[in-house]
Design goal:
Blueprint: H1 2-19, H2 22-32, H3 38-121, H4 130-161, E1 169-172, H5 173-190, E2 193-199, E3 205-208, H6 210-226, E4 232-241, E5 244-251, H7 285-295, E6 299-305, E7 309-317, H8 321-327
Helix pairs in contact: 1-3, 3-4, 5-6, 6-7
Length: about 325
C-alpha cells in the first residue's frame, strides 16, 4: 500500500510540474540562483520529489487516525441512540397501558353515576322538585362531557399504538346521516343549535365502520354546535364530488382565524379566540376525526370565513353498484 501511494504521488507531482511549464520553472530558478550549478539544481529537485511522497504518507497516516476516531465516536453515538430509542419505546408502551387502565377505571364508576342520575331525573324513584332537577340535568350533561373526554384520550392512545380497530361493512349514506343527526340532537339542544339535513342521496352506499364514522360526525357536529350563535342551524349534507361522497357540516359561527388554519388538525390544537375559553374539549377531536377518515381511504378539509361560518367536509370512496354486484 505505501509503495502504491508513493508511485501515485510521484506521477501526480510530475503532472503538476508539466502543467506549470517545467522549462519556465527551471529557467526562473536558475536566474534567481545564478551561482548554483545545474547538478545542484537537479539534486534539489530530486530531493523534493523524493520527500513529497514521504510527507504525503505521513499526512495520510494522520488522517486515517482522525478518521478512525470519528468512526469510533459515530459508533458510540449510534449505540446511545439505539439505547435511548429502546427506552422511549418502553416508556410509550407503559404510557399507553396506563392511559388504557385509567380510562377503564374512570369509565366504570362514571357509567354508574350517569345511570343513577338518569333514574333520579326521570322521576322513576319519585317526583323531583324542578330546582333539583335542573341541577341533576347539569350533572348528567357533565357526565356525558367527561365520557367524551375519556373516549378521546383512549382513542388517541390507540391511534398512537396503531391499535384502533375498524369493522368495515357496506353502509347506506342516507341512513348514516340520519343516525348522526339523531345521535347528536340532544347535544345541539344544549347550545340552542338545530341540526338540519339539507341534502342526501337515498341510494348511495359507502364502505366503512359505522361506529367510527359516527364518531367523526359527532366530533364535527359538536364543534359546529359549540361555535354557533344561539338559536342557529347547522346544516348536514351529502353529495357526489369528483366520483366520491362528500359529507359536509356547515355552521354559521365566528369562523376560524387565519393563523390557526394550518394547524387545525394537529393534536391538542385550540383556536386562540376569546369564546373558546368557555368551550370544553381536549383538542383531540379533529385529529382523531382526520385519522378515522384517513383509515377509510378518505380526505378531510374545511372552508371558513370570519363572522360568516365554517364548513368541514370529508370525502369517502363510493361503494358503487358495480362493486356491489361483483361482491355478490
Amino acid at each position: 500500500m505505501p509503495v502504491a501511494i508513493a508511485v501515485f504521488t510521484t506521477i501526480a507531482f510530475a503532472v503538476l510540474l508539466i502543467s506549470f511549464d517545467v522549462y519556465e520553472a527551471v529557467y526562473d530558478l536558475t536566474r534567481q540562483y545564478e551561482a548554483w550549478e545545474l547538478d545542484e539544481i537537479i539534486l534539489v529537485g530530486i530531493s523534493a520529489l523524493v520527500s513529497l511522497p514521504v510527507a504525503f504518507v505521513f499526512y495520510m497516516s494522520g488522517q486515517n487516525k482522525k478518521l478512525k476516531e470519528l468512526l469510533d465516536q459515530h459508533e458510540a453515538l449510534a449505540a446511545r441512540l439505539t439505547e435511548t430509542n429502546e427506552q422511549l419505546v418502553i416508556a410509550s408502551e407503559a404510557k399507553s397501558e396506563f392511559v388504557a387502565t385509567m380510562s377503564h377505571e374512570i369509565r366504570t364508576p362514571l357509567t354508574s353515576i350517569k345511570g343513577a342520575l338518569g333514574l333520579v331525573r326521570s322521576d322513576t324513584k319519585g317526583v323531583v322538585p324542578e330546582e333539583v332537577k335542573k341541577l341533576l340535568n347539569i350533572a348528567y350533561r357533565n357526565t356525558d362531557r367527561l365520557a367524551i373526554l375519556i373516549d378521546d384520550i383512549l382513542d388517541y392512545s390507540k391511534i398512537e399504538a396503531g391499535e384502533l380497530e375498524y369493522n368495515i361493512e357496506p353502509l347506506e349514506v342516507a341512513s348514516l346521516v340520519e343516525l348522526a343527526v339523531e345521535a347528536n340532537e340532544g347535544y345541539g339542544q344544549q347550545y340552542g343549535t338545530t341540526f338540519i339535513i339539507k341534502s342526501g342521496l337515498p341510494d348511495a352506499m359507502i364502505k366503512g365502520d359505522e361506529n367510527r364514522l359516527m364518531q367523526a360526525f359527532s366530533n364535527l357536529m359538536s364543534n359546529a354546535a359549540k361555535f354557533s350563535p344561539p338559536n342557529s342551524d347547522v346544516e348536514i349534507s351529502v353529495a357526489r364530488h369528483d366520483g366520491r361522497m362528500r359529507f359536509s357540516v356547515k355552521d354559521f359561527g365566528c369562523g376560524i382565524p387565519e393563523e390557526f388554519r394550518n394547524q387545525i388538525f394537529e393534536r391538542f390544537s385550540r383556536a386562540d379566540q376569546s369564546n373558546t375559553r368557555t368551550v370544553g374539549g381536549t383538542g383531540l377531536g379533529l385529529n382523531i376525526t382526520a385519522e378515522i377518515i384517513k383509515e377509510h381511504s378518505g380526505t378531510i378539509d374545511f372552508q371558513t370565513e370570519i363572522d360568516v361560518g365554517t364548513t368541514f367536509y370529508f370525502e369517502l370512496p363510493e361503494y358503487t353498484a358495480e362493486e356491489q354486484s361483483a361482491a355478490c
